[in-house]
Amino acid sequence: MFFLTSGVRQTPEDRHYVCMQWALFFYECGIPFNVASSRQFQIAIEASCQYDSGYKPPSPYELREPLLKDCVKETKELRKQHEVAWKEFGCTLMSDGWSDRRGRHLINFLVNSPEGTYFLESVDASSECQDARMIADLLEKRIDDIGRNYVVQVVTDNGANYKAAGKILMDRIPTLYWSPCACHCLDLMLEDIGKLKAFKKPIARGRRVTTFIYRHGRILSLMRKATGGLDLVRPSNVNVHYQRQRKRSAPSTTFLDDYDLEDDQEQHSSIPNVEDDDSDFLQDDVDVTEDEEDPTSAEQDGEDTNAIMDEFDDGY
Length: 316
Prior knowledge:
The chain is α/β, with parallel strands linked by helices and 316 residues long. It is 55% helix and 12% strand.
C-alpha cells in the first residue's frame, strides 16, 4: 500500500492504484458496474478531487438522516423549474399502480413535460376500494395540485377501473384527455397473442424443455458449455407497471421525495435476476405441475427426455 502525493504529476501506476480501490469498493458492496456511467457518480468524484486531501466521506448516520433530508429539500426546490415548463407547455399526469412485499397497493403519480419527468408522490391505497370513482378522485386531487389549466392529459394503464376513471375525469374537466399506456397495451396484446392456438402449444413445449433442462444439473452444464455460458431466454415475472415507471423516471434527477425508500428497494429486489440460481428460474418462469416433479431414477430421466424429444419430432 502507498499514498499519493498532492500536487505531483501522477503516473499510470498511481491511477491504477486509485482505480483498484474503486473496483474493490464496487465488488465488495455488490454495486452494479453501470453505476460508474452515472452522471452523479462523475460529479461526486470531481467534487471529492476538488476538496482538500483531508476529505472524510459521510458516515452512515449522515447518509440516513441529515443528508437525506437535505436531498429531499433540494428535490422539492427543483419542482419550481418543472412548474415553469408546466405553465409554458402544459404537462401529462401519469399514474402507476403496484404492490410491495407487504401486500400494500401503492399508486405513483408522475408529471411529464419537456423539462423531464417529475415524481409527484406515492399514495397507499390499500384501504380504499379500487373503483373508478376513487381513482378519479385521486387523479383530480393531483390535477388541482398542479393546476387544471396546465394538465393536458392523464395516462394510466388499461384496467377497466382506470378506463372508467378516465371517462369520469373527462366529464369533470372538459379540456382534459385520457390516454391508455402504450406499454401496457403492447403487454396485453402479447399476452393475447400467446393464447392463440398457433403459439400456445410451441410456448408450452418450450417451457417444458426449459423446465427439464434447469431441473437436471448435468444437462444444464452441457447446455451452458454449448452456449458459452449463456442461459435460455425465458419469460420473467417483472411487473410491467413498475418497469415502465422506472424507465420514465430514470432520466430525471427529481425522483426522490417523501416516500418509503425501503419499499422501492423491496420491489426492486423482487425482480427476477437472470443470474439467480436454478430454483429461482423454475419458480418464477415456469408453471410446474405435480406430474413434472424431479425424476428419482435414471430410468425416469430417460423416459422424460424421450417423451419431450418425441413431442418435438412429431411437431416439427
